Amino acid sequence: KAILLEAKVLVYSMSAELCSRTVLCLLSLLPGAAWLAFNSNGLGSRHYHFRKYGLPLQCFGPRCCVYPYLGLQMLDALLQMRGFLVGTTNRMLVERASPDVLLEVQTDAETGAVCYSLSFANKELKQLVKCSAQDKSWLQDSLSVLEAAAP
């Protein structure tokens, strides 16, 4: 929901692979958004049908960017954006970009499990993205289907 509201969403991790993978996973939640404007003969018909129904949603453009991994040298360009979805391993970028939503991704050294921490700088945005009863029900159903399908 925060991405659809053009919030400033930043994913931070010590691992470049983990932060970029998380950004791409978040992006894949929007229908057709994971293509990142990629079009080939193999995707042509699917791409046409998505565009026919107004998909992918136009969340990103000249004033709202997405970067699976962003270095410190892009900070000035990032500060000019109205909203963004970016991943970084640089703590200084986290502090200077002042994101509305910060998702910290860590790996537990003992178990190897991935842990997520979500924080909101904007309390109004936090209220807007809060899960409704229908959202929670859909998430529980989706998770049960995914867990049943997992080997």
Describe the structure using short key phrases.
globular; 38% helix; five-stranded mixed beta sheet
Structure description:
- By secondary structure, this protein is an alpha/beta fold.
- The chain has a five-stranded mixed beta sheet, sandwiched between helices.
- The protein starts with 7 loop residues before the first strand and ends with a helix.
- The longest helix has 17 residues.
- It is 38% helix and 20% strand.
- It is globular, with a radius of gyration of 17 Å.
Concise summary:
This protein is an alpha/beta fold and 151 residues long. Helix content is 38%, strand content 20%. The protein has a 5-stranded mixed β-sheet, with helices on both faces.
What is the helix fraction of residues, given as a range? 25-40%
**Strand proportion:** 15-25%
Number of distinct helices: 6
Shape: globular
Counted beta strands = 5
Catalogue the unreliable spans.
Answer: none
Strand line-up in the sheet with most strands: 2-3-1-4-5
* Average pLDDT metric: 83
**Straight-line distance between termini:** 30 Å
Q: Could you state the order of secondary-structure elements as H and E? A: EHHEHEHEEHH
